[in-house]
Specification:
heterodimer, A: about 500 residues, alpha+beta, Dipeptide-binding Protein, domain 1, Dipeptide-binding Protein, domain 3, seven-stranded mixed β-sheet, 17 helices, globular, B: about 300 residues, mainly alpha, MetI-like fold, 2 domains, about 80% helix, MetI-like (chain B), ABC transporter permease (chain B), MetI-like_sf (chain B)
């Protein structure tokens, strides 16, 4: 009869046998973010953004210093009025060996700019059209100037797809197993589990990628990813909870460098619902919060306290402003003068913000609010948020680029389609400045506009900024050169396996 | 022939059950607030884009017409397609179901031998030292939350000792056994005490019956009375409990699957619910329901084989 002990021994024996079969030449990354589609225009969710970068080359790329460098485009010129861009393409091939032509480039970029199912075309709003001038020249014409347009030729959804592939097999088949132009191509995709990539032998960058492949594994649970990392089953962990950073970093075979991100955490009041439609009540809510102590409690001192409505990693971040300082007594007086002492407020949170809710409730109640915490899941949160069916909530966001254009459109613009991250903050002057800043070609003037936008929106507490956390990703010492850029791109093509 | 007719009639009875399950799941899902499209295309997509994509997926059709479309496809064996991945639900089920099945069967293999050994050992001398120790250890096993045990095992057996992988499923059969050892063991930790207690008390009940005295007085040795009479009679109540637990394990696999990152049905189910991936939730629920029906049927047949008095 087989008993438990016998089985352990049998399993043990197989363990020893199977030990040698683990793939040594691929990089394994575990992430809580899900890959749901491989079509670069179909989604702007983090998991997909992280995968698109590996599959699709862009016209431009960013180097380690964050400078724009030629990629598929060998060179480019911009007309004096800033309305026409001309890109000269290099000789490059798709993963199936076919040439990457100007037709493919125009098709891909028109698709992300104009297709009605394009998930996030905001960067391409000024685009009139991309046209293939000849075999390897593409011209881009704009309806009005856009200062960051060149840098948008590098972002996650500006990847070049094969026109023939999309048209021959249809968008659905393409979205599951595309012909790729980036450093990697799809080996196997198991939806809801993992995306296995292999090196694209036709990638335009000679000598890259340096590894044979990569596994993007979906692992929801923080503790599980940490165990996997410590057991050597993965090479990178996308997201170590701050509480575990020191423990994981202490392991000999793992490093947890804290690297810059465009993340920002903040309290989001609904500007069209009492009592937060009143600026003085918002001020009281901000003054009631000891943001330094709250940040320290939530991130164990690993994040910087936020001073602006925009992330500090963005260009033109305004370092000279700050929300009202911690002063619970003044907060109470302010509430009294507004006849809002004892105002009942409901704080809507998703389960990840349990600790934040406890901290906020205690501080708000001490200053004279009466806070109720309401817990919802992510799906319901977005539903309620977008319908404006909440009083105050807390969440984070990040910007896909370091240019602030998309960030201001997302977070503080009332006329840009998202109602200031659905807080319904709407300041006509700010809205106008958002449009002006996009068109402004003079760098100093442009910077001044963004600083002014931050000053006004912080003063009016569009959101109450809390902190700027770094990316806390864990990397095995088995690999070298892997990092996550602020634009959510893994530097996988530069990654090497060292032992 | 009789048993064949029994199986057919039970399977026919399962049709209305499955229909009911599908209606309830469908109603629950469409009434759960939350838009699958926003979660799918990313939060920054504009409301217009989201409306266009909703329309493409037919999510704006009236609920009744959505359900009948679904039912019509279901009758033809089509479970629909995942909203998230655009792949057929049947493909996802085919990918994830075998993993969970492997996990459950593996757990059963780890569970049964200790249950039988421990309960027989306990019942031999009720309230003796062995019985007491088994009971106390059992209570501890029951009292520890599964996710916590999972975490501890992963850190101890996986990280500290490096004996077993702490995640995944592997690609070959020996790898499956290796990868699923800790998940199965974690499951066994709480199931073994339940079944042991149950079987022990059934054994004690049977051992005090008149037929035992009668058998002994006729000169049958204690071992033979135990083997041929007491043990088979005691198995039946435990077998029924066992069936319930197996059905529960299939659906309740989500905790161990999460802790050990096992790509099984539990993970598929939870992710699909959170993403409001309606058709996957539907399909997975139906598969769970069907599995439960089959397990119950198998146990009924097994009971009849053990005890011919039970009328199938």
């Amino acid at each position: 009869m087989i008993n438990a002990k016998g089985l352990v021994i049998v399993t043990f024996a197989t363990a020893t046998l199977a030990g040698g079969a683990i793939a040594q030449d691929i990089v394994r990354i575990a992430s809580p973010n899900k890959v749901t589609t491989l079509d670069p225009i179909a989604s702007a969710a983090a998991g997909n953004i992280e995968a698109f970068g590996q599959l699709y080359a862009r016209l431009l790329r960013k180097d380690a210093e964050g400078k724009l460098q030629p990629a598929l485009a060998e060179s480019w010129t911009v007309s004096d009025d800033g309305l026409t861009y001309t890109f000269e393409l290099r000789d490059a091939k798709f993963s199936d060996g076919s040439e990457i032509t100007a037709e493919d480039v125009a098709f891909s970029l028109n698709r992300v700019a104009k297709d009605e199912a394009s998930a996030y075309p905001a960067a391409y709003a000024p685009v009139s059209a991309f046209t293939a001038v000849d075999e390897d020249t593409v011209s881009l014409t704009l309806d009005y100037p856009s200062a960051p347009m060149l840098s948008y030729m590098e972002i996650f959804n500006a990847g070049i797809v094969s026109k023939d592939d999309v048209e021959a097999r249809g968008e659905d088949a393409f979205a599951a197993d595309p012909v790729s132009s980036g450093p990697f191509m799809v080996d196997v995709w198991k939806p809801n589990d993992r995306l296995t990539l292999k090196a694209n032998p036709n990638y335009w960058r000679e000598g890259y990628p340096k590894v044979a492949g990569a596994d993007l594994i979906e692992v929801q649970d923080d503790n599980t990813r940490t165990s996997m990392m410590l057991a050597g089953e993965i090479d990178a962990n996308r997201g170590v909870p701050f509480a575990q950073v020191d423990e994981v970093d202490a392991s000999d075979s793992v490093n947890v460098p804290l690297s810059p991100s465009t993340l920002i955490y903040g309290v989001m009041p609904n500007h069209t619902k009492p009592p937060f439609d009143n600026l003085n009540v918002r001020k009281a809510a901000a003054m009631a919060l000891n943001r330094e102590a709250t940040t320290k409690a939530m991130t164990l001192g690993k994040a910087v306290v936020a001073n602006s409505t925009l992330p500090n990693a963005l260009t033109y971040h305004n370092a000279d402003i700050a929300p009202p300082a911690y002063d619970p007594a003044a907060a109470r007086e302010l509430l009294e003068s507004e006849d809002a002492l004892g105002a009942e407020i409901t704080l809507m949170i998703t389960p990840t913000f349990e600790q934040a809710a406890t901290l906020l409730k205690a501080q708000w109640d001490a200053a004279g609010f009466k806070t109720t915490v309401e817990r919802v899941d992510g799906g319901l949160w977005w539903d309620r948020l977008t319908k404006g069916d909440y009083q105050v909530t807390i969440n984070w966001w990040y910007n896909e680029t370091e240019d602030p254009d998309l960030a201001v459109r997302w977070a503080v613009c009332g006329s840009c389609g998202n109602n200031s991250y659905y807080t319904n903050y709407n300041n006509e002057d700010v809205n106008q400045m958002v449009e002006d800043a996009l068109r402004e070609q003079d760098d100093a003037k442009r910077g001044a506009l963004y600083k002014e936008i931050q000053r006004i929106s912080t003063e009016e507490l569009a959101q109450i900024p809390l902190y700027y956390p770094p990316f806390a990703n864990a990397y095995s010492t088995r690999i070298k050169g892997l990092t996550l850029t602020p634009a959510l791109q893994w530097t996988l093509e530069e990654t090497e396996i060292v032992n | 022939m009789k048993i064949l007719r029994f199986i057919v009639s039970r399977l026919l009875q399962s049709v209305p059950v499955l229909l009911g399950v599908s209606i309830v799941t469908f109603l629950l899902m469409v009434n759960t607030p939350g838009d699958p499209i926003r979660l799918l295309v990313g939060v920054r997509a504009s409301d217009e884009t989201i409306a266009i994509i909703r329309d493409r997926y037919g999510l704006d059709d009236p609920i009744l017409s959505q359900y009948f479309t679904y039912l019509g496809n279901l009758v033809q064996g089509d479970l629909g397609a995942s909203l998230r991945f655009k792949v057929p639900v049947s493909e996802l089920v085919a990918q994830f179901y075998p993993v969970t099945l492997f996990l459950v069967v593996y757990s059963i293999v780890l569970i049964l031998p200790p249950v039988i050994l421990l309960s027989v050992w306990s019942a031999k001398r009720p309230n003796g030292p062995a019985d007491q120790i088994i009971r106390i250890v059992g209570v501890i096993g029951l009292a520890m939350p599964v996710f916590w045990v999972g975490l501890l095992f992963a850190r101890f057996f996986g990280v500290t000792l490096g004996l077993f992988p702490v995640s995944g499923f592997g690609t070959t059969i020996p790898e499956h056994f290796l990868h699923l050892f800790l998940p199965s063991l974690t499951t066994a930790i709480w199931v073994v005490p339940i079944l042991t207690r149950n079987l022990r008390s059934a054994l004690l009940d049977e051992m005090n019956r008149d037929y035992v005295t009668a058998g002994m007085s006729k000169g049958l040795g204690a071992p033979q009375v135990f083997r041929t009479h007491v043990f088979p009679n005691s198995l039946l109540p435990t077998l029924n409990l066992f069936a319930v637990i197996v059905a529960y394990l299939l659906g309740g696999s989500v905790i161990v699957e999460t802790v050990y990152a096992v790509p099984g049905m539990g993970k598929l189910m939870v992710d699909s619910i959170l993403a409001r991936d309606y058709f996957v939730v539907q399909g997975a629920t139906l598969v769970f329901a069907l599995t439960t029906i089959v397990v119950m049927l198998a146990v009924d047949i097994l009971s009849a084989l053990i005890d011919p008095r039970i009328n199938t």
